[in-house]
């Protein structure tokens, strides 16, 4: 913590090593390694996170991960497609170019864009890279097909792209200043086209959308009720998306995401949709694994009155 308990950095010219360290008595406090395991759920924790009531007895008890065993989540074991060795090397840190630009690579393959106003006042060039948001952060998505004379972007690229080098060129065209590797980009694109349910569905919908203007794409949120873990961890294309008629009434399903055929409007995605994270972070969730939402009820519902997670 800062020695005077004030803001360490207020302007971009203060965001440098000398100014920041000058406001600390010593080096910033460290929690050590995250290698302490909760005895109930197995979550890895920092030792300083243990329940204070028990710390004086040297007992490592943790409560804010599983409420000391009162909440349990089912394990989802499944055999996924084997990723190419060249792609595995990217994630193990052997390719520095990929590691340094992983955010940009993810953005080129993302189905949604990030809607945010970034506060540049603390974005110093020689200090700590600070990402501060002014206002609301949102994920946004456009129409299924690009408007006339518009270059496709995000989910639209999956619909109209050729699945090969031409599609890679379109993606990289949005990130020219980052000098991303075309070889790495093609490898990532091939993997997602093979294993990602959103990519597979959008690829297969292009011909249908062009032939029938009345159709729209609906990106589903998985319904509450009985939870099938394999469906959440590795959903099929039909689990996460469907083609619907424009006349169909979908007002009773507000968490579903409707992609109109062609328009210039961006739609905000509710963070209550189970596809909120996999649509934005395909390199983190390449199989389209769904996030849990506020309808999930703990399997320990009989023992725990506060069962909703």
UniProtKB/TrEMBL annotation:
<protein>
    <recommendedName>
        <fullName>Helitron helicase-like domain-containing protein</fullName>
    </recommendedName>
</protein>
